[in-house]
Amino acid sequence: MVTVTNYLQKENAEGKAFFMLELTGELEIVVSQTTGKPYATVRKVSIPTTLDENMCKLMLGKQMPGQIAKVEVEEAYDYTNKETGEVLSLNYRYEYSATEKAQTMEQAVFQVS
């Protein structure tokens, strides 16, 4: 499940305003690559919408089926951490997928949920 947690107003190349919905995934526990210690995080992604501002406000808190998936990109790009100023070279992005995670082979074979 994902939750609509915010909306943002942006401008397209022609200067016309449009809105984006911020979607937040479920809580995940991941292990730090530098310290080896676990920490809690959530994935977030923004998607464009045809909704007006009033409708975007009504969507806040709405939960929808799906997930935020990590997807590899063909060409790496630089990302600057706003808090630390550190520049990272990334070869992935996050995107919303309307379908839940596919089952693992074990889950499919043994019907484990």
Brief synopsis:
This protein is mainly beta and 113 residues long. It has one domain. It contains two helices and eight strands; from the N terminus they run E-E-E-E-E-H-E-E-E-H.
Draw up the topology in text.
Elements: E1 2-11, E2 17-24, E3 28-31, E4 38-41, E5 44-49, H1 53-59, E6 63-64, E7 67-80, E8 87-97, H2 105-110
Antiparallel strand pairs: 1-2, 1-6, 2-5, 3-4, 7-8
Describe this structure in words.
The structure is a single chain. This protein starts with a strand and ends with a helix. It is built from 2 helices and 8 strands, in the order E-E-E-E-E-H-E-E-E-H. It has one domain (2-110). The strands form 3 sheets. A 4-stranded antiparallel sheet has the order 5-2-1-6. The model is unreliable at 102-108 (pLDDT under 50). The radius of gyration is 17 Å and the shape is globular. The protein has 113 residues and is mainly beta. The protein has helices spanning 53-59, 105-110, and strands at residues 2-11, 17-24, 28-31, 38-41, 44-49, 63-64, 67-80, 87-97.
What would the principal axes of the Cα set say about the shape? globular
How far is the N terminus from the C terminus?
Answer: 16 Å
**Secondary-structure content class:** mainly beta
**Could you give the order of strands across the largest sheet?**
5-2-1-6
Q: How much helix, percentage-wise, in residues?
A: 10-25%
Q: Segments where pLDDT lies below 50 for 5+ residues?
A: 102-108
Number of helices: 2
Integer count of domains: 1
Largest sheet: 4 strands, antiparallel
Report the C-alpha radius of gyration, rounded.
17 Å
Order of helices and strands: EEEEEHEEEH
The averaged pLDDT comes out at 88
| Content of β-strand | over 45%
- Strand segment tally: 8
